[in-house]
UniProtKB/TrEMBL annotation:
Keywords attached to this entry: Iron, Metal-binding
Every Quercetin 2,3-dioxygenase C-terminal cupin domain range: 147-232
Residue ranges occupied by any Pirin N-terminal domain in the UniProt entry: 12-118
Lineage: Bacteria, Bacillati, Bacillota, Bacilli, Bacillales
Keyword Electron transport: no
UniProt: Fe cation binding residues: 57, 59, 101, 103
Cofactor note: Binds 1 Fe cation per subunit.
Similarity comment text for this entry: Belongs to the pirin family.
Alphabetical list of InterPro entries matching this protein: Pirin, Pirin_N_dom, Quercetinase_C, RmlC-like_jellyroll, RmlC_Cupin_sf
Protein name: Pirin
Keyword Iron: yes
Required cofactor(s): Fe cation
GO MF, any single term: metal ion binding
Amino acid sequence: MINVIPSDSRSSFDRGWLRGNHSFSFGEYQDPENTAFGPMRVANDDVIAPGRGFGAHPHSDMEIVSIVLNGKLRHEDNLGNVAVTSFGGIQRMSAGTGMIHTEHNASDTEEVRILQLWFMPYTKGLEPSYETTSFDPDALAGALVPVVSPEGGARVASIHQDMTIYLGRLAKGQTLTYEQAEDRRMYIFAIEGKLGLNGEYQLNEGDTARVEQTTSMNLDVSEDAFYMLIDLP
């Protein structure tokens, strides 16, 4: 089952210093029929104005992944972590028993665009932790590159949930097939371009698909595309 959700059905907002789209209930946007997909709770596509950001605020019992699409994102938390991440970098925060952090655009001249993804951990009460990792942007060509997984790795952030986040790019005419075990889900987001799914559906830029009861997914493109695929329980 493939449920395509058009970009214009997301909850959009513009506060001047912050604009973006929420794919699940978040903040002022509340829809009891759209609160989660498996352990996935939040998928925000945010653009932060130069020199602006989120002041100190708390989180607990949540795995939070920030993927920087362009610009520079600065993170600081009460554990003493300070990091500035640009495209090719991943920030992962396990809030566990509680963390306080800030997120700001590290540039005074350029916007920063981030995908912020929240997931329920496999257990509550974990020790809070934070890490940054980097992937090779050139490796995305014609591939699905894991950037977050339970095992982690030299270029893969670790996460306390049975799930993997992949990024990839396909050039016009290329295809790729992803296989997953039964009784799992896929969440697919067309970041740029257009992405075909199993020869039946198409994601335009900004569209997402929530996939269940489908173990094989064939991706094809009629124009160059940049995409994210998340394998979820």
